[in-house]
Amino acid sequence: MIAAERRAEDHSFTQKVHLFSRDYLRCCLFILGPGSPEHGYEFTKKLFSKLIGTSQVLEDFLDFHGAKNNKEWYLYRELCAAVRHLSLGGYSQKHILNRLVCYDLKADASFETEGRLTLEFLTRSLIKIAPVILDEAKRLGIPVPGDEFEASDFPGIVTGTRLEYNIDDEEKTQPKKHIVKIASEFLKIGKHFDQFGYFDAYDPARIRSLVPEMINEVEVRRYEMLVHNLQSSFDTYVIHGGYISGERQLKSLRSHFSVVFHLLQSMGRFLHFYERHLHEAGYRDIYKSVRNQLSFLVDPDRLLDRTINYGLYWVCHFFSQGKDIAQAVLNENIERDVIQVGVPVPRGFHSRPSLLVAKIVQYYGGKVELCAGEGRFDASSVLDIQWAGGKIKNENITLVRFEGDARSLRDLKVLANSNYGEDIMGNGVSLPRELAYLHE
Question: What is the C-alpha to C-alpha distance for residues 421 and 85, in angstroms, rounded to an integer?
Fold first, then answer.
């Protein structure tokens, strides 16, 4: 009885692996034939979507039945994962190229050129993987379908038709609090990438020193989610009508974090595939053998080059380029206020108080000026504040004004009430709880 049940279960597995492999293998046949670039076909979002869907359901099925721990099925499963992650990256990259005409970006032609090179690498890798998948299916006794997809099954999304723009909500007052929050968050996230800004392409050795120690899937996915949250908030609370309606500067800001989001999506997929499937795959011979096969099909150095010298480079570029736009949007929409407070006792605006003031202003991002007598100084600059400190000391000024972003002024008042973090001897003291972020 038990043997009969096991035979029934095996039969069920065989039936289902054939079923879940069918359209997946049809895609492989398509990209080796009519879907090959040699036949003048350019991979479309619909093809990438089909590859993603068929490989994901097959991978889930294989994982459920323990293919990760089975010598016979392990390669078939790993090839499935390769198709899924390369196709996810390809879908995001295809989306960027399709939307370039809509994005308000001041990028030179090299961005599109590099994007097309990245897409070509992905498609060529998938074409190299396809015959290996078909051979592995035959070895496992999985029938290769006789009916193939046609190019007409995978049309592109771009046409010459534009639907009439007949929903007019341009006069709607934009909610400033949401705009301020989005612009501030963009500036905060962008600061993290300042450390990676570079002018020359990294060589393979330099890239491998960064991945995965400093740049890895976990970190990239975290920032991908943060930027996605910006885009979601923007589309929900700021502009509903897409790129035609709305204020130009706001749409330009959205373009910058939208393209960054899709670049981070691609980077996350590439890094997952590299870290999980190419970097280290365990000590067993089967793991090493399959990793070597995948490395032959998908060049690890080329994958990392596209991740860093394309993905990371342009993420940094668009964060840097969008900084001025975000700053302008922020300063146009912040609530402004003025406060009058005392100067630090007894040493005035020396290093510690100046640094704390600047950190508060930088944290919120909006413009704030320190006004001492007739002088006006940039409160986000430690140097400017110390210049103000010299004037304050020379002119025996005891009260100063801060003018600008009300959010910063609220915290500057708290800081001033604690004598800017110092006791009367000029020694540092604990800051109030509201200013805990200054220690980050």
Answer: 50
What are the pLDDT digits (tens) for 276-304? Answer: 999 875 567 788 899 999 999 999 999 99
The residues, ordered by sequence, that sit 6+ positions from 217 with a Cβ below 8 Å of its Cβ are 268, 271, 272, 275
Question: Order of strands, edge to edge, in the sheet holding 375-378?
Answer: 336-342, 399-405, 368-372, 375-378
Residue 12 φ then ψ, to 5°: -65, -45
For the stretch 200-257, pLDDT in tens is 789 999 999 999 999 999 999 999 999 999 999 999 888 765 544 457 889 899 999 9
Q: What confidence tens digit (pLDDT) does each residue in 317-341 have?
A: 999 999 999 999 999 999 999 999 9
Asked whether the CA dihedral 429, 432, 436, 437 is positive or negative, the reply is negative
